[in-house]
Predict the structure of Catechol 2,3-dioxygenase.
Amino acid sequence: MSRWESPIAKLGHVATHTTDLDESIWFFRDVLGLKLTEREDGVAYFRGLRDWEHHTLAVIDSGQTGVDHIAFRTKTPEAVDDLAESFEANGDDVTYVEAGEETGQGEAIRVEKFGHPFEFYYDVEKPPAPEGERSRLKNRVYSEASGNRIAPRRIDHAHVQDSVSPAHADWLQDDLGFQLNEKYLTDDDETWGWWFSVTPLPHDFAIHRLEAGAEPMFDHLSYHLDSLNDLWEAGKVLAEHGIEPDAWPGKHAITSADYLYVTDPASGLCIEFFAGPGYLNFEPDWDPIEWHESEIGGETSHQFIGEGPGWDGLAYPDE
Amino acid sequence: MSRWESPIAKLGHVATHTTDLDESIWFFRDVLGLKLTEREDGVAYFRGLRDWEHHTLAVIDSGQTGVDHIAFRTKTPEAVDDLAESFEANGDDVTYVEAGEETGQGEAIRVEKFGHPFEFYYDVEKPPAPEGERSRLKNRVYSEASGNRIAPRRIDHAHVQDSVSPAHADWLQDDLGFQLNEKYLTDDDETWGWWFSVTPLPHDFAIHRLEAGAEPMFDHLSYHLDSLNDLWEAGKVLAEHGIEPDAWPGKHAITSADYLYVTDPASGLCIEFFAGPGYLNFEPDWDPIEWHESEIGGETSHQFIGEGPGWDGLAYPDE
Amino acid sequence: MSRWESPIAKLGHVATHTTDLDESIWFFRDVLGLKLTEREDGVAYFRGLRDWEHHTLAVIDSGQTGVDHIAFRTKTPEAVDDLAESFEANGDDVTYVEAGEETGQGEAIRVEKFGHPFEFYYDVEKPPAPEGERSRLKNRVYSEASGNRIAPRRIDHAHVQDSVSPAHADWLQDDLGFQLNEKYLTDDDETWGWWFSVTPLPHDFAIHRLEAGAEPMFDHLSYHLDSLNDLWEAGKVLAEHGIEPDAWPGKHAITSADYLYVTDPASGLCIEFFAGPGYLNFEPDWDPIEWHESEIGGETSHQFIGEGPGWDGLAYPDE
Amino acid sequence: MSRWESPIAKLGHVATHTTDLDESIWFFRDVLGLKLTEREDGVAYFRGLRDWEHHTLAVIDSGQTGVDHIAFRTKTPEAVDDLAESFEANGDDVTYVEAGEETGQGEAIRVEKFGHPFEFYYDVEKPPAPEGERSRLKNRVYSEASGNRIAPRRIDHAHVQDSVSPAHADWLQDDLGFQLNEKYLTDDDETWGWWFSVTPLPHDFAIHRLEAGAEPMFDHLSYHLDSLNDLWEAGKVLAEHGIEPDAWPGKHAITSADYLYVTDPASGLCIEFFAGPGYLNFEPDWDPIEWHESEIGGETSHQFIGEGPGWDGLAYPDE
């Protein structure tokens, strides 16, 4: 199945639990500069300045930390039903989410695969920015962030970890039509990292492999910034707030993008700001790029040419 | 037909005629910084620093100016045959191009639609950059441009003009699966501009309408630059070479991108450098944005919030 | 006299009249993003985000437009008295300004030279930014501008026009120790532009020549921005506010800096935002650079390599 | 003595020894992108793209590593003689350098102070860039760097270390008229860092204190880059060459500037690339900024808000 035949259009949003919703709102809205589109029934809904959908991050006040679900938007309404059917045929346990159960969203399904809680939906509201915050550029949503906040533009990708990554990767390619753009191999030629996409982004979704027996985890959710200047300014905003990021700005060799990582203390959710040119992959006949441990270092973090931050993921909550 | 069902993967290249190949090579390689991948039988083949394919611009030494063909790459080899079949069923005159007839390219077909010379192909070589110019970032092709040259990263879009644009636009949407992202309407509500895409780019291909009876023309081919700094530096490079661009850097409201336009004197081909954030459109349920003449001015050029340069296109050569 | 022997340390501020103080406050604070340090007795005092002094712009509610005075700060308190003495010895009419008469400022003197109203002062308050707006970087004053506003960093230079420029230029060099960095000559070799500095900036003060008999005028006051991104963003901020600048971003050959010009409707004061590398001139043995009309065009405006905007100055008010 | 009364105009150049001149030329010219203005008698002379003087770095083929001298340019020719006189009156051993002994330079004097080898000169050649490399912007020297090289614009500052810093600092202030802009204090309130300037730059010269008895050392020579994009690109250039810098891009709190540090293996000379807004200090009544260990960490390196790289200096050679 090619990525054009994939039922999935894009990464839609991530929902996380939090131990303190007010503190998470301070972090995501007042420091990170996400827009709070709605707060209802103990859930806060956020989006970036150029996200069209109702939310690309939901934060649930539950006294726990951990990711509740990772949601993909399908290309058609029918694709949601088709996926449900094929999951059930496969023996997976599918949960049906009513329209409106998640604010701003239509009917959806949820399923756990390889230890990760996925959601698939098509119908979603696209509220305009409030009067006064709306951009005169109609191809943007909000005009600008307020002062002294980072201004995330749009959701970019999610990254998870598990010990069953090879099977997980096969499922993404064979069943869901994701294209494998890049992979990371140890010096004994075992694959430990996969960067997948259904869009021309370098990745919409990535998996990092854990040792056998380790619990599946959520690594980070990424938002895109326009430029290196924005990324650097993000560092300055954190410094002005007295917040130490997980990693100051650096450059990944894999995906060729510039990064900064910072974690919300209340929810434990790690956000990667992702900027710089990266690359867009329009090729229909792509051979996955292979990076070897010896070329870019192992788990070493924060390198300019390197693999990225150490892999301390966020456990999914028990429910 | 949705853009995912489109047979087309991307804009592949444009081929132009030139009155002086050496002068065109000076312009495209030594000033604009495109990489010359091959020069054979009176044709020079160029690509940007991150273009994977053999060429994204071909320049044909024929003593004429004007665009020879606009080539789209299909998603599959079969799609080329299917398109040929459907064109012939429609009564269109299809030309078959042998593998290798265009250097680096496999079998292709050509057809004239609405006065524009289109090509469709799938098979193409992807030569690595020569030793010494190759990037250690494997997701890039060339490491860098040489000094005092602009460094176009990748082909972005093509823009044409004709008097039969509404029918042309319908064909692109209905037969080829292009998604209409934005359009421009005069104050009496007639559409005079269409911005189409099969990818998440704001446009892969656009049409500007001409008065009834006017000849179809080619407007410009666009290459992407990473950042505003690159665009500004492009202006400085032209200034150092004593070349006056068609338009110094400015910002388009439509597509939300930053531009600079400059024309090769020998071929008459206008190149737009396209930078800045623009936007990526991943939405499966997009309502085309409508811009009205009164909002952003008419044919006025070079405006920050405006429609762009005046529309002096390049006639296709008589053959 | 070398610039190190000059009595002048820097351009301090400009004071302008306005026909509508509230509208000017909207323009300078809410759009241009200057900080309002004080509003008292019908005068509003502004400064940039990294200006240490109490104000670098004063706006006087007087029902008139036009610049009230152009103020230079001296290197020592004594230099103010020495200047007063030498002006009086020369027969100039010196006005003595009491400490506090201009809020935040100590004793000063005013004198009209070549039709321009100059002020010289040394003592001035340097109020910290209010709590909550103060930068944790102690070498900055304010942390950041609020959203959707330009963020001028510091006062840069002032530019005036008169028909007696050659004598005016001699006075600046011989009596005040300004260094001539660049000049502009017409094709018949007459100098029509002078760019002067007592600091390493490309200019602190410039003169444009007018035809004989023309009234002396004030051209513009300039604030510095950090980067090209800031300048471009400034254009976007104006566009979001629906304000048309006098000149969209472009590049000056003279001073090698990037610009954007915009005028406050209520006071008529034109502000130039000045960004980009420009150059710093530390040379003790500088030969002024000469630019000829034929090299960079005449009065043509908005050119990338060009002289800058047309010269429509602001008349000084009759008092 | 104020900085305007200082005999010194600017930092002029640094001369270093090298164990391998060819390798140093490869490093400084082919990687770092400095321009080689001359190679004569076993000395290579370099400058940045906008340095007017004959050289801002000299590299001496002597089989040793270590800095030979740190040269300041005076404001007048007489100042060189006056300094010589006052050094000798003080009992210092002054060496007289003949015109031409250092290529491109007139008469100069050398003196060792606090263990550091200083030179003072006024006369120096200012060769234009060779035809073909000259910028059409007359206020620049070279048009651009060649490809895949960093493009240092101009010399910025030098940084040294010694155990007698307090006396060294007094000499710079009292005898040479340097202004103290910022200082760094340990938690027990001892000053361990001084940032001095005779120009409005945040520093032309800085001292870091060493434990009593430690040998005086040279820390680094700094070149200025225009923008954050240039700094990031510098990182990419090093990565493409397979060179690991001493510190990837980060931000200093002190001086408010962005940095990258890299060392020439053959000479041991550490170069800091210095970019970003920093700040310009035009104030005649400046109170030095005090940074405390508890505010920005101690010797911790590479922090965004931090003090900078660890202090591994370069010993001066025995001669």
Remarks:
- The helical segments of chain C are 21-31, 77-89, 165-175, 228-240, 293-296.
- Residues 154-315 of chain C form a domain with the 2,3-Dihydroxybiphenyl 1,2-Dioxygenase; domain 1 fold (CATH 3.10.180.10).
- The mean pLDDT of chain C is 89.
- The CA atoms of residues 18 and 40 of chain C lie 15 Å apart.
